[in-house]
Amino acid sequence: MTVTVATFYKFFTFPDYREQQVPLLNYCQTQGIKGTILLASEGINATLAGTENAIASVLDYLRSDPRLHDLDVKLSYAETPPFERLKVRLKKEIVTFGHPEVDPTQQVGQYVPPQGWNQLISDPEVVVIDTRNDYEVKIGTFTNARNPQTRSFREFPDYVKQHLDPQKQPKVAMFCTGGIRCEKATAYLLKQGFQEVYHLQGGILRYLAEIPPEESLWQGECFVFDERIAVEHGLEPGSYGMCSACGHPLSPAEQESPAYEPGIACPYCAESTAVIGNR
């Protein structure tokens, strides 16, 4: 049975988010949905999996709220369920950035659809930045994109302060998995005085879904936060696995490494695991 996977987010004023937790959890449970929903006063962020009809029902339920009538959803498909359970969590932020003064409902960068992205990032005057974490970037990224080498999104503002200058790099284009991190990243850059700030509409996932491989400037696979680990063009499941000990994604070559023992250790944690084991 093919599983439908729906990824979506929206920033909006959501003062009653706590009251919506239980009703939303209950409705998703009646539909047999698995996945994660994050609720905060700034909006909603979710990736859900279920049958096609179940996903459609949950989306109809959400869109019945006037604040979510225009909810933009990215759909992909998997042969096996990418989640084991359902979680509806209350958070301070739907994507943790640590700068409450940054409000994507007030200002964000210019959205660039996948069809216009190649032309933008091919402009030598445009600085292209991958806003994701280092382990995600290593799996795949766009040609000539900068890797901030962050371990968490909270570190991104420090990267901006140390490596970017609105006077020297007036044109900046950013991208992330589904688009949500760029909402805050572009809003932050605008507050720092950058004039031309762009972000990939729908993120890497929409680009991989809509741009043919022969026209693509994407290299590698795209990490996703579920049991598929990574996806390729057409949002087909990728070749990466994951170390259950440390959670690091593993390429096929790394899964063949002598340091990889399923459920025990991998090349990224073998040394620390051995140290712990010798205590």
UniProtKB/TrEMBL annotation:
Classification via Pfam families: Rhodanese, UPF0176_N
Claim: Coiled coil is one of the keywords in the record: no
Keywords from the UniProt entry: Oxidoreductase, tRNA processing
InterPro entries: Rhodanese-like_dom, Rhodanese-like_dom_sf, TrhO, TRHO_N
Its EC number(s): 1.14.-.-
Substrates-to-products reaction catalysed: uridine(34) in tRNA + AH2 + O2 = 5-hydroxyuridine(34) in tRNA + A + H2O
Keyword tRNA processing among UniProt keywords: yes
Domain Rhodanese: 122-216
Catalytic class of the enzyme: oxidoreductase
PANTHER family per record: RHODANESE-LIKE DOMAIN-CONTAINING PROTEIN 7-RELATED (PTHR43268:SF3), THIOSULFATE SULFURTRANSFERASE/RHODANESE-LIKE DOMAIN-CONTAINING PROTEIN 2 (PTHR43268)
Function of the protein: Catalyzes oxygen-dependent 5-hydroxyuridine (ho5U) modification at position 34 in tRNAs.
Similarity annotation: Belongs to the TrhO family.
UniProt xrefs under NCBIfam families: PRK00142.1-4
Name used for this protein in its record: tRNA uridine(34) hydroxylase
Lineage: Bacteria, Bacillati, Cyanobacteriota, Cyanophyceae, Spirulinales
Protein encoded by which gene: trhO
